Recover the amino acids of this structure.
């Protein structure tokens, strides 16, 4: 016979098999633990008495690529695009059957694939020179000497007449030689960079040739500063561009989805 007393188990008198009663060993108190079933039961009661907060799984990050901007070119803008595209194709000898802006982008892609960097820049400058009659270039250079008026005129002219080429843009103010001037064109999202999706095409077929052509043909220094994160760009008229070896634009690796190399490369610009 056993008696359970608050965790103590006490041995009692024992009747041996001979019929003679004898006393067992002195009373031994032994500390005991509740059985495993008792543990489980107690745990269940405790768990039932308190609510358990279940943290929902973290939502997976969703990465989306914004759709490209839609352009509805007028017949006059379409004519200007095809005109420039044709002159690029004539300079390279590589023709394509596309129309509109796709034709211009394809023509510049052909330049990138077929010619080395110096030739690419030279061919685009040549195409720009052929697209604008020489007398007009000479007249603008002669009539408009470098001045605040000329810098602001070029900025305003670009926003009005070249949005079909670079996308929506606006004139912004900057400090030039200690005074405020509206000599900066801010391109909100460059149409050419968005369509080409290539850093090398931006720098070698737009930035460098444009800087070279505008300065050489109009006598107007201009520094084009692309932002490859949001595809915006600033054209700062009157500012000399840095040397190519020091220009941050030439230290930028290309996009992972570059449409020319189709890989994330460091040498798209050289």
């Amino acid at each position: 016979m056993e008696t359970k007393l608050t965790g103590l188990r006490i041995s009692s008198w024992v009747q041996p098999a001979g019929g003679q009663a004898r006393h067992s060993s002195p009373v031994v108190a032994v500390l005991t633990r509740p059985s495993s079933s008792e543990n489980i039961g107690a745990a269940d009661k405790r768990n039932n008495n308190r609510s358990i907060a279940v943290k929902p799984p973290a939502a997976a990050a969703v990465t989306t690529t914004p759709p490209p901007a839609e352009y509805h070119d007028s017949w006059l803008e379409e004519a200007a695009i095809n005109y420039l595209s044709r002159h690029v194709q004539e300079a390279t000898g590589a023709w394509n059957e596309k129309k509109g802006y796709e034709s211009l982008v394809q023509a510049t892609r052909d330049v990138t694939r077929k010619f080395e960097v110096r030739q690419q820049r030279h061919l685009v400058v040549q195409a720009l020179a052929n697209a604008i009659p020489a007398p007009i270039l000479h007249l603008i250079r002669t009539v408009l000497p470098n001045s605040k008026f000329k810098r602001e005129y070029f900025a305003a002219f670009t926003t009005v007449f070249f949005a079909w080429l670079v996308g929506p843009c606006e004139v912004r103010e900057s400090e030039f030689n200690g005074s405020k001037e509206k000599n900066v064109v801010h391109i909100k999202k460059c149409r050419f960079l968005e369509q080409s999706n290539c850093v090398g095409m931006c720098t070698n077929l737009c930035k460098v040739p444009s800087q070279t052509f505008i300065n050489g043909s109009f006598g107007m220094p201009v520094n084009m500063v692309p932002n490859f994160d949001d595809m915006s760009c600033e054209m700062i008229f009157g500012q000399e561009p840095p040397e190519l070896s020091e220009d941050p634009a030439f230290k930028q690796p290309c996009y992972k989805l570059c449409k020319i190399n189709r890989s994330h490369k460091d040498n798209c610009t050289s």
